[in-house]
Specification:
By secondary structure, the chain is an all-alpha fold. Helix content is 76%, strand content 0%. The two termini are 31 Å apart. The mean pLDDT is 94.
């Protein structure tokens, strides 16, 4: 069962688990590229970088999944793009906290919130990013 197969605002644990897994995978891939591009001096440094990147992305996935689901439940509006904006914004704020930067947190809150809300709107309206155009 995929993320979009579960109704928004229901089964928060399952939705959070799915977004956490995707965050972890993206964190591992990103960490691997970072380690290859900027080679560490020791193996321990490589492990620390991989763990930091992976755990940060996993936490972002968990925060996104839980925030969108809880927002849908609390507001009793499961198909509202604002729930996704809130989830993206919360994930962006985590990176602001991680970098100790208000500007980073604010910028990523707005950016990730907007991307998440547009993704939800696109899903609701049937937007396509790849494939032949519909006539």
């Amino acid at each position: 069962m995929g993320y979009w197969d579960i109704e928004d605002g229901s089964d928060c644990f399952q939705k959070t688990w799915i977004t956490t897994k995707w965050g972890t995978v993206l964190g591992l891939v990103g960490s691997a590229y970072h380690i290859v591009a900027f080679q560490p001096k020791t193996a321990m440094q490589a492990v620390e970088r991989a763990a930091a990147g992976t755990l940060t992305m996993a936490a972002m996935g968990a925060i996104f999944g839980m925030t969108t689901c809880m927002s849908a439940q609390l507001r009793e509006k499961p198909d509202d793009p604002w729930n996704y904006f809130a989830g993206g914004c919360a994930s962006g704020m985590l990176l602001g906290v991680r970098t100790h930067s208000y500007m980073t947190g604010t910028t990523l809150c707005l950016a990730l919130g907007t991307v998440a809300a547009l993704t939800k709107i696109g899903k609701m309206e049937g937007w396509r990013l790849v494939g032949p155009p519909r006539v």
